[in-house]
Write a structure and sequence with these properties.
This protein is mostly helical and about 130 residues long. Helix content is about 65%, strand content about 10%. The chain starts with a helix and ends with a helix.
């Protein structure tokens, strides 16, 4: 483990300790913290620079999960790790400073919708390669 990795892990551990003490908000802070950690893990997952190689690697990784989607009830809804507030924080060029989490607005997906999202992402990369 490198020094940078140790420092990041130490910061995450300290954050986890603080979050475990925040019990009075109905789980809002913990939900947001879990979502941010997941997005951080996605962000830190290395991806090839070449769109073609990125697409091949992502397909290989996702393929094992996509086949299992067909075994689920098409009407079943699954909660996403992404919350409405987190989405705003990640996409707003000048997000408002939040002193207290506003709430939890969850996104839900059906198995078929998840499959469509993955395929749409793949089509975006294929279009990028084509251009």
């Amino acid at each position: 483990m490198t020094t940078d990795t140790r420092a990041l892990q130490s910061a995450l551990d300290a954050s986890r300790t603080r979050m475990s003490k925040a019990r009075g908000d109905g789980g809002i802070a913990q939900t947001h913290a879990a979502a941010i950690r997941q997005v951080g893990a996605w962000t830190l997952d290395p991806a090839p620079k070449s769109p073609a190689h990125h697409l091949a690697a992502a397909h290989a990784r996702a393929r094992q999960h996509l086949g299992r989607l067909l075994t689920y009830d098409p009407a079943a809804e699954v909660l996403s790790v992404m919350t409405g507030e987190l989405f705003t924080r990640l996409t707003d060029p000048e997000p408002a400073a939040l002193t207290k989490p506003a709430g939890i607005t969850r996104y839900t997906y059906t198995p078929r919708k998840m499959l469509r999202r993955v395929l749409d992402h793949a089509l975006d990369h294929l279009n990028q390669i084509d251009q």
